[in-house]
Design a protein that fits this description.
The chain is an all-alpha fold. It has one domain (about 1-20, about 35-165). It contains five helices and two strands; from the N terminus they run αββαααα. It has helices at about 1-20, 40-65, 70-95, 105-130, 140-165; strands at about 25, 30. Strands 1-2 form a two-stranded antiparallel ribbon. Strand 1 and strand 2 form a beta hairpin. Helix 2 (about 40-65) runs antiparallel to helix 3 (about 70-95), helix 2 crosses helix 5 and helix 3 (about 70-95) packs antiparallel against helix 4 (about 105-130).
Length: about 170
């Protein structure tokens, strides 16, 4: 029951951030300006696997309620899970040091991981959109995904991670 409440709370926060920006479309019906992606690293670091699942489910819900549900939403679901999951894996399984953004090295490492996660998401979803919808500009779509999933998590996600970790004492997910 506790896990279900956490999942619903994280999903509610996701939707509260995502819904107002859904009107800022880059390619109508396919991609928009998505500040909600700043939550990917935050959810991955502090909430682990449930946070990664929320990113995927939240994206699918947004596709559904906005009328953007398409075959490519499958790729979006997978990509929106995989990017945060890569960040989660790095900080919990692969890194030899615990999560911290206190020094330049760990901060740059985190930026690199976020960029790798953004590239992974772009590579997972863009080919699906390009094949299923050849009339969509795949380059513009891919650039939009890459920018959304790297810029917002770096510019806004890192300060939120630092604030949660350093000021509020949030503990990274084991």
């Amino acid at each position: 029951m506790k896990k279900a409440r956490l999942f619903l709370l994280l999903l509610l926060v996701y939707l509260l951030i995502a819904i107002p920006f859904k009107v800022m479309e880059v390619i109508p019906g396919f991609t928009d300006v998505r500040p909600v992606t700043l939550l990917g690293p935050v959810y991955a670091v502090f909430y682990g696997l449930p946070g990664c699942v929320v990113m995927a489910v939240g994206n699918l819900i947004m596709d559904t309620i906005s009328g953007s549900l398409r075959w490519s939403s499958i790729g979006g679901f997978v990509a929106n899970f995989a990017g945060p999951f890569l960040i989660y894996l790095y900080w919990t399984k692969w890194s030899r040091v615990p999560f911290s953004l206190r020094d330049a090295k760990s901060l740059l490492t985190h930026v690199g991981i976020v960029c790798a996660a953004a590239a992974l998401e772009t590579l997972l979803i863009t080919p699906m959109v390009a094949v299923a919808y050849p009339d969509v500009d795949a380059v513009l779509f891919g650039v939009s995904v890459m920018l959304n999933t790297s810029v917002f998590p770096i510019v806004f996600g890192i300060p939120l991670l630092i604030l949660m970790h350093e000021e509020f004492g949030a503990i990274p997910h084991p």
